[in-house]
Amino acid sequence: GRIALDTAVSAPERVVGLVLIGSALPGTPMTPELESAYEAEEAALHEGDVDRARDINLRLWVDGVGRERGEVSSVVRRTVAAWLDALLARQAAQLRSQAGDARPVEPPIAERLGEIAAPTLVMVGQHDQPHIRAAAQRLAFGISESRLVVIECAAHLVNLEQPRRCNAMLEAFLDQLAEDARTG
Asked: I want to staple 44 with a disulfide (CB 3.0 to 4.6 A). Which of 9, 53, 90, 151 is the partner?
């Protein structure tokens, strides 16, 4: 989402539409619980405890807010756990070596949302983390041609948990973009 947003601002001629699903927005405040979970994840990664870091991530991003582990499809949990095993092992190695060169975009994208002219579909899961739901609202409010859709019975990975709903929204959005291109 961040890369798509930056592209929409820095190269608007290359963007005919945006789809932002569970996108974060730098500057959106996190809850103390989430900050604590991030600290616990980082500590686990520093210790090389990928299992603990994976469990923290599954609770945050798959179970989400207001749901128990058993309420989420076991297929979704297993799929994401496998992805996390590969990702977190690399993150743990990077943390131990202090590798990485990420730099924040300046000025912050949150201050530049009004520059985005492309039609935008913003999707967020009902059970996603509060700062992601808040980011979705800020994105929808700040981008003039946007639509916010909250997907019920999903946390952060709405496309995995509710693929039919997600795909239906995406198809309708893309069809509208194509129609606008034909008539506009």
From this structure: 53
